[in-house]
Amino acid sequence: MRSVPKSLLPIAGIVAVTIAVLSPSRATADANDEDAADRVARCANRLSIAMVGETASPDLLASRAPQTATDAFLRDPRFIERFSRFINSQFNMTPGMTPAEDATYYLAKYVLENDKPWTEMFLGPYDIVPSNPQQPASEAVVRPDPNGLGYFRSRAWMVRYAGNEPEGMRIVAAYRIMWNTIGLTLTATTNAPDADVSAAGRQATQCRGCHLESWFALDKVAEVLGKRRGPDDDIQFDPPTGGPKQILGGISVSNDKELVEALVSNEAFDVNACRLAYKYLYGRTEYSCEGPAFDRCVAAFKKDKRIQSAIAAVAKDPTFCE
Ligand code: HEC
Question: Do residues 47 and 99 both lie within one domain?
């Protein structure tokens, strides 16, 4: 029979004492660990649902720092699909009647898949067209086009937003261009059945603000877009003839390209990119108390103009998981 080696006894004694001393604080440590684990799991789920619309994978749930997965999510095809649909819903009130009318969906997807700057959405050399020119309702594709201006010169988009102004002025397109780039939001107020909607009618006090006087004066902006001509089933577009116009608070602009360049180089464009990032990730625009995080988003977006950078700045911010 072996006796317990004497040398071990004191150690066993110390261990027992140590355990006795440690056990109460151990219990709190475990509780803290559980809290921390819960927080991390909540963060993982929140991020995954926001980015790809699904709860977190087991790997992400096991991660100690789920927000570091943001960059991988930004390349995930599920994110690209979901964000492109989100953009389409933000830039159009309703889904298009044909795929090419949803040019914003197709170009957003192209821009994300090819890691292009967000400015390419509005200025890039592309045309979004039906894959079969004989069938307007066929699947749409993004084609390189040196004359392109994002989707703004794609015919299906131009026709969708050609408007019905009596002189063919493209007021609706002017509004959409400002909305999609800098996030201008107005509520048109022309539905009074007896309203005189002509250029003379738009001089009226209740119309002038939006149509003629503010920095976004819709009629002035529309003048540099040229006009629509012809019946709804055969719309033609004529280039502008009026020469340069002073718009957007004194910038001289003579055509659609100069207009979009002016809009995209305005800080309102950067702010709108971050507003889209907030809406995508939080389902709402930013709160004023989120100012510092929002500013970090704008700074990140300004650096490389990638919408992914804006989204990453918001999703990686500590506040996102609080
Ligand atoms: C709050 C801003 C605002 C006011 C005020 C306003 N409008 Fe507009 N108007 C808009 C917007 C925005 C559009 C573009 C609507 C769109 O994109 O569908 C528009 C479009 C139009 C169009 C072009 C419609 C088309 O299909 O081409 C006409 C004509 C028009 N408005 C007339 C008027 C008249 C007349 C008044 C005054 C009774 C008026 N608007 C007041 C914002 C305004």
Answer: no
